[in-house]
Design goal:
Number of helices: 26
Enzyme class: hydrolase
Protein name: GPI inositol-deacylase
Number of strands: 30
Biased composition (Low complexity): 70-94
Number of domains: 4
Structural class: alpha+beta
Keywords: Endoplasmic reticulum, Hydrolase, Membrane, Protein transport, Transmembrane, Transmembrane helix, Transport
Strand order of the largest sheet: 3-4-6-5-7-8-9-10
Transmembrane segments: 117-136, 785-805, 826-849, 890-923, 960-990, 1010-1033, 1079-1097
Radius of gyration: 38 Å
Distance between the termini: 40 Å
Largest sheet: 8 strands, mixed
């Protein structure tokens, strides 16, 4: 059978105006595959001679080539000047099936456009776009917390510490230290209070200290300074020092974190030195000199604060209290920098190891307390899940609390508002002033007392295990009552006061305390809309009393208050009582007009005691509480109500055993009966994931006797301390920060698991309440936004690497390098289903493997834990680093979903790059246009699009670039330059392919364009990993800080990219690999894709190095065609460049 060519496949290029055409001889199958036209020219003797064309076996891996052959190929390896002679095939020789298939593939390639897209690829892209749109729209419109922060007021004055210069620190030219003074409130200088150091966060300003410093100064002047008792107890004002870091970017750069920590330790030493003499000339000269400061850090400033304790220049015990606001303690916000990941590992390992010591003397952090305050769902900068410190610090030394839990705040705040929210600043300032004790060198109260006070101010006091003050108090009130039983309720009867002052005089109602039975079986609950205050201020007072029999030597003089309500009747009862004011829990007011928990209304007062807490304060039977006295002190009838009761814990607690499947299909339903207690607690253990959102509905019938208050709901988690209050509940959005992706396990897991709903409802309303909790599927989509934003740095690269693999497979098999779009179509149709199934199976298998093992699947990238003593030795803190970062097999669908979205994003970015390249090519063609009268062949030969510089010149340029990387520029800068150069290479390659393809869409020129374009796409997806460090470097140059980064001048991290890009600028097409060595390329790309899926989120910085290794392999393939020999090296370094050019064109 004879091989016939169509007229479409045979065309000639005229020379010097010669329009004659000649029929070329039929070539081999390889020639049919690669050559689009056979061009002939006549020599002077009339013999035909081929014009420059691409060798049929151009790009074939040939390791046995000699040095002379390599030199010859090196001198003719550009697309514009490649020449070769191909033996012709006899017309009678038949074509094999493989050759015929190659010919068909070549013809199909010539018909395919770079803009073409298969139906499957289009469908995947549309599905990805729909999923992304749904996630973003859900995040913006559904399950959104209300905003209600009020702006703080301040009058700032900043005093620069000019003496803190280069004699104290090497960073004096870059950073500055200031002392904040509130104008008209603080004394200017010298500082005489308690030192507090404010650390701004990523790109933060030292001026952000204004709200907290102003609030602390005003509260001290207006309240504390007027109470001599507080001054006598060691309370003083706070001196806020703040640091100007010139808005350093710390979230992306670990070395900057270390530099700031070093500077701050030196600043602490300087601050403490200011107090050695300032107090000697004042009335506080007898007080000890301060030996520690309080740290107040925002965002990454909290991480810098913890880093200070591991630095070599840290002074022991110079920091004992750290309060952080929206600080990502658990893990780095992004993992694009190796140093930031290592710094996090070092800090967290130190803290975990310290708190795992058996003896306090071996724990350098024994006297340190750490409080992490998180903003919640409104924080769209750092996921509030990362603020958890449960994996670092036990609850004896610190805790995590959300602003929605803090009394009198009760709202979520965003990342910046957490520093100026007036409601929050008031509470935090009072808490900081409350822990101060200048009588001690540490300037704060002992650790246990600090923790008790911080929990009192920042937690709801409804948490399990909250320490009550009542058992530690002594009787202060002698209550005298008339001897009748009308004001004593029967045992177990509920006390309800619908109005106050009905008796037109003060009146006490007694509730007998039931006998102590099984621990935790009975609770006392009291709720009122009045403030519970002692003395004559409030309308209601609650006292816990026991009968006071006068003994010898005892009398009424023992009590600070004598409350006689007997009316001078002859028979009276005396009770020794203790006030419960210190244990009052404030709750948001829930009335028919309430809308938000943070409304400006007088809060409800609530008391809650377990029965054993009312009997444990004394071993003497006569001192145990016998009555609870509710004293109505109103002398006229007024609005106000009180509800008090002793209730069985079983009646007030509902445990839901619904399964996850039942939760998804039917939800949770509970019915609160008409004779329900004041408060009901519903625990749902299956609800613990932060990726789900729910809708709560509470249906209440109309009350016949009038409703005292509307239902009040508190959703809460035991760890971290997150509570949200919903007033006037009809429906409510329920979302939480529980089990979150990529977070390490807690040091000491809490035994109470899952979401709990605490519902206060009017028990006098003889109507049941139907409570239902349904899954909000659309609202749950938005929960993925903050938790999985960084997957878009990894999963698209997974798709790109597998598409690149398809391109190399086609090139090595049939000799045609297909376009990126065609490779995407092949990947979607052939490989994507297998990828999705593999990811799903991997998630499920890892989840079950971790569930069966107590230690989980150890991460190969995790530090070994042999150095951990006791508890943490058996814990794998990096077991959630892989894949989707969760151990729950229910979320198996997330990995394939993210892969699908990654494919869609890759397709969209590919078309955006095509638009840029084609538009730039059009512009470049306009400015590089040759005269029309020139022949096509002459224009092509006279104006080759690729570099014709000598090897010597290229080596010199590359060497200088590497020298600059090693000394001045970070390798990220060189990488960005390489990306730009590669973009221009793609533009020149596309221009050349269009001008020399004769209307076809195949051939060597198009192969090279597709190859260079795919390299550019791969490099483009690595660019975001390198940009943050580049931004930090540029910022340092802007502030005139020229000290180079020691961790970003590794030549091996950029040399393969530079060599590959430089090689492509000469127009060199990568050789085909026809031996088994081609499986190395396949293995490297599969390994890159696997790493993107497994660790691309948690260790994203390694993606650069993996692609760098792949680039080195491509460089090796390029150089395998022209291995350097002694003769070649002599030619490069000793032969003049002009002579070399002449030899190259001979």
């Amino acid at each position: 059978m004879r091989s016939r060519r169509s007229s479409r496949d045979s065309s000639t290029a005229p020379e010097d105006g010669d329009d004659s055409e000649q029929q070329p001889p039929v070539g081999s199958a390889d020639e049919c595959r690669f050559a689009t036209a056979q061009q002939f020219r006549k020599t002077t003797d009339g013999s035909p001679k081929k014009s420059p064309s691409i060798s049929p076996d151009h790009g074939v891996w040939n390791p046995s080539a000699t040095g002379e052959d390599s030199a010859a190929s090196r001198s003719s390896n550009t697309l514009a000047t490649a020449t070769a002679t191909t033996p012709t095939r006899s017309p009678e020789s038949p074509l094999s099936k493989e050759q015929m298939e190659d010919m068909r593939n070549g013809r199909r390639a010539r018909m395919r456009s770079n803009w073409a897209c298969s139906i499957r690829t289009l469908a995947v892209t549309l599905i990805s776009a729909f999923v992304l749109y749904s996630i973003v729209q859900s995040y913006r419109e559904r399950q959104c917390d209300a905003k209600g922060c009020r702006m703080s007021h301040m009058s700032p004055v900043y005093l620069k510490a000019k003496d803190f210069d280069t004699e104290h620190t090497r960073f004096a030219s870059k950073y500055n230290l200031y002392l904040y003074r509130e104008h008209g409130v603080d004394e200017d200088y010298p500082p005489k209070g308690v030192p507090v150091l404010f650390i701004p966060g990523n790109a933060g300003s030292y001026r952000q200290v204004r709200p907290i410093a102003a609030e602390a100064a005003r509260h001290f002047k207006n309240v504390i300074s007027k109470d001599p008792a507080l001054a006598k107890s060691g309370t003083r004002n706070l001196d806020f020092f703040t640091v100007d870091f010139n808005e350093d970017i710390t979230a992306f750069h670990g070395q900057t974190v270390l530099d700031q920590a070093e500077y701050l330790n030196e600043a602490v030493a300087y601050i403490l030195s200011l107090y050695h003499d300032s107090r000697k000339s004042t009335m506080d000269s007898e007080l000890p000199d301060p030996s520690s400061v309080i740290i107040f850090g925002h965002s990454m400033g909290g991480i810098v604060a913890r880093t200070m304790l591991i630095m070599p220049n840290y002074r022991m015990k110079s920091i004992n209290t750290i309060i952080t606001m929206s600080a990502p303690h658990a893990r780095a916000p992004v993992s694009f920098d190796r140093q930031i990941v290592k710094t996090y590992d070092d800090i967290n390992d130190f803290w975990r190891r310290s708190f795992s010591e058996k003896w306090a003397n071996n724990n350098p952090l024994w006297h340190t307390t750490l409080v992490s305050i998180a903003g919640g769902g409104l924080d769209n900068v750092v996921p509030s899940d990362y603020a958890s410190i449960s994996s670092l610090v036990p609850d004896t030394h610190g805790f995590t609390v959300y602003t929605s839990s803090i009394p009198d705040v009760w709202l979520g705040v965003d990342h910046l508002a957490i520093l100026w929210c007036d409601q929050l600043m008031k509470v935090v300032a009072r808490a900081m002033l409350d822990i101060v004790d200048v009588r001690r060198a540490e300037q704060t109260k002992p650790r246990a007392e600090r923790m008790r006070l911080l929990k009192k101010w920042l937690l709801t006091s409804l948490e399990e295990g909250t320490e009550k003050s009542l058992p530690r108090t002594v009787p202060t009130t002698l209550l005298t009552l008339e001897d009748n039983s009308q004001n004593i309720t029967s045992l177990g009867q509920r006390l309800v006061l619908r109005n106050l002052g009905e008796a037109q005089k003060p009146r006490a109602y007694l509730m007998p305390v039931p006998p102590v039975g099984e621990p935790g079986s009975i609770k006392f609950n009291l709720m009122t809309d009045q403030a519970l205050e002692t003395g004559r201020n409030g309308k209601v007072e609650v006292l816990f009393c026991s009968v006071w029999p006068p003994k010898s030597g005892q009398g009424a003089a023992l009590f600070s208050m004598n409350m006689d309500l007997s009316g001078d009747t002859p028979g009276s009862t005396r009770l020794a009582c203790r006030g419960a004011t210190s244990d009052v829990i404030r709750l948001p007011a829930s009335t028919k007009d309430s809308r938000y928990s943070f409304d400006d209304r007088t809060p409800f007062s609530y008391l809650e005691y377990r029965l054993e807490e009312l009997a444990e304060f004394s071993e003497k039977e006569v001192d145990k509480f016998e009555f609870v006295a509710v004293v109505d002190k109103a002398d006229r009838k007024s609005n106000g109500w009180v509800i008090a009761e002793f209730v069985s814990t079983k009646d007030s607690h509902i445990q839901s055993n619904v399964s996850l499947r039942g939760l998804l299909t039917d939800g949770v339903h509970a019915s609160l009966p008409a004779d329900r207690p004041l408060v009901t607690d519903i625990n749902i253990p299956v609800i613990h994931s932060s990726l789900f959102a729910y809708k709560l509905t509470a249906k209440l019938q109309v009350c016949s006797d009038g409703q005292l208050f509307k239902p009040l709901v508190r959703q809460y988690l035991a760890d971290p301390h997150e509570s949200k209050f919903f007033v006037n509940v009809d429906t409510a959005d329920i979302n939480l920060h529980g089990t979150a992706p990529y977070l390490p396990p807690a040091l000491r897991p809490n035994h109470r698991r899952g979401l709990s709903l605490q519902i206060w409802s009017d028990p006098t309303c003889s109507s049941p309440i139907e409570v239902s909790l349904q899954m909000d599927f659309l609202g749950s989509l938005g929960r993925l936004y903050m938790r999985y934003r960084t997957v878009f740095a990894a999963f698209p690269l997974l798709a790109v690497s597998l598409v690149f693999r398809k391109q190399f497979q086609e090139y090595d098999n049939i000799g045609r390098f297909i376009s990126f779009g065609e490779g995407m179509d092949l990947f979607v149709s052939q490989s994507l289903p297998y990828v999705l199934v593999s990811l799903s199976m991997m998630v499920v298998s890892l989840s079950f493997a971790k569930a069966e093992s107590n230690h989980g699947i150890p991460s190969p990238l995790e530090k070994r834990a042999e150095s951990y003593p006791s508890t943490t030795a058996s814990m794998q803190f990096a077991k959630n680093d892989m894949l989707i970062g969760l151990q729950d097999p229910f979320f198996w669908f997330l990995a394939p979903l993210f892969a699908l979205v990654g494919v869609g994003v890759t397709v969209v970015v590919n078309y955006m790059c095509l638009i840029i390249v084609h538009a730039a090519t059009a512009v470049y063609s306009v400015f590089d246009r040759r005269p029309r009268w020139e022949s096509h062949e002459r224009r092509r030969l006279a104006n080759g699009p690729f570099s014709a510089s000598s090897p010597r010149r290229r080596i010199i340029v590359t060497s200088f670039l590497l020298l600059f990387v090693a000394t001045i520029f970070p390798y990220q800068f060189a990488y960005m330059v390489a990306c730009i150069v590669q973009l221009f290479t793609c533009i020149r390659a596309l221009k050349y392919a269009k001008e020399n393809s004769y209307g076809e869409r195949s051939g060597p020129a198009w192969d090279f364009y597709h190859y260079s374009y795919s390299i550019f796409v791969v490099m483009l997806w690595i660019l975001p990993i390198n940009l943050p460090v580049l931004v930090v470097w540029h910022h340092n140059l802007a502030v005139h800080w020229l000290t180079p980064f020691s961790s970003h001048h590794n030549l091996l991290s950029i040399m393969p990219f530079i060599l590959l890009v430089e090689t492509l600028t000469t127009g060199n097409m990568i050789p085909r690999v026809t031996t088994k060595v081609k499986y190395v390329t396949n293995f490297l790309l599969l390994g890159l894709a696997a790493y993107c899926a497994l660790y691309g989120v948690t260790y994203a910085y390694r993606l650069h190095h993996l692609v760098n290794i792949f680039a080195a392999w491509l460089v090796a393939i390029h150089f395998s065609k022209s291995r350097p020999t002694v003769a070649v090296l002599k030619e490069i370094f000793f032969v003049d460049s002009e002579e070399s050019e002449k030899k190259r064109h001979q």
